[in-house]
Amino acid sequence: MSETEAAPAVELLDKLAAQSLRRFALPPDTTPTLINISENATYRLDDPATGNRWALRIHREGYHSPTAIASELAWLSALKEASAAAVPAPIAGRDGELIQSVAIDGLPSPRNVVLFAWEAGQEPAPNDIAGFERLGETAAHMHGHVKAWNRPPWFERHSWTFETSLGATPHWGRWRDGMGLTPEIAAVISEAVAVIERRLARIGTSPSVFNLVHGDMRLANLLVDGDTVKVIDFDDCGFSWFLYDCATTVSFFEDAPEVPELIKAWTRGYRRFGALSPEEETEIETFVMLRRILLVAWIGSHSETNLAQEMGVAYTQGTGPLCERYLSRFA
């Protein structure tokens, strides 16, 4: 998508964000500022009089149903109530509803909008060993909560199986449509995908290993506030392998030399509060490779986003050597 094509869409989102403010009991001078467009558009809301802030999320059309969004918010509330993780609190609109449907001229249909309390903190550094231990602890707490939580009967979220990740019905598009994919890179990725499929089939999908996960615990979705790790942006939460949450922590820098030590730090933290066998630890590499190829697909299907343009062809090209390394160990 060119800049001239993208600009009207951003202008419409800005208009929708401004319209959404009326749905909530916010100060009259609150102003929205776009901070990110990925699956959704996220705005920071500022009250200049008090310095208070909020986060406004405008959902992408057709990605999640209202029931699926309500399911995400139900898990957030349950995590917060159980003190299982530090997560943002959704804020109801003037009508008492957490999900607001907002329409404006220029968009073909209303968009679902959710307001969250603003969370203070800093994104973790990619080389922070102690921070990754805390990430492991946080994931263990969340996974323990999921195993004990009785979900509402209407609960609905995406399921991230092999088929819906790298297989025939992928949520994020086909990895073969990745930016700059050459026949040589496609061949080695295809071989790695076949190995991943076999190993995932061996792991299985029993609730003890495959359950509700955050699904995107990369550094951009984490905030360190003192000794507390806060987890934000549950938009990709759904049903997948617990170990997938570990793989997502190194998203977009899977080939960095510090990654093995970071993974070890994560596992140390995880084992303080959760069970992790040596066999499961070995398979983390499979999930890192799964995530890497899945992100190749995401970049290809979201080429209009800043993140996809930033990673682009170089990310696809760098995936080939990672696949070769993975195959040398697991083929």
Describe the structure.
The structure is a single chain. By secondary structure, this protein is α+β, with helices and mostly antiparallel strands. The chain has 2 domains: 3-117, 2-Layer Sandwich (Phosphorylase Kinase, domain 1), CATH 3.30.200.20; 129-330, Aminoglycoside 3'-phosphotransferase, Chain: A, domain 2, CATH 3.90.1200.10. Helices cover 45% and strands 14% of the residues. The strands form 3 sheets. Strands 1, 2, 3, 4, 5 and 6 form a 6-stranded antiparallel β-sheet that branches. Strands 7-10 form a two-stranded antiparallel ribbon. Strand 2 and strand 3 form a beta hairpin. Helix 3 packs across helix 7 (259-271), helix 5 crosses helix 8 and helix 8 runs antiparallel to helix 9 (306-330). Mean pLDDT is 94; it is low at 1-8.
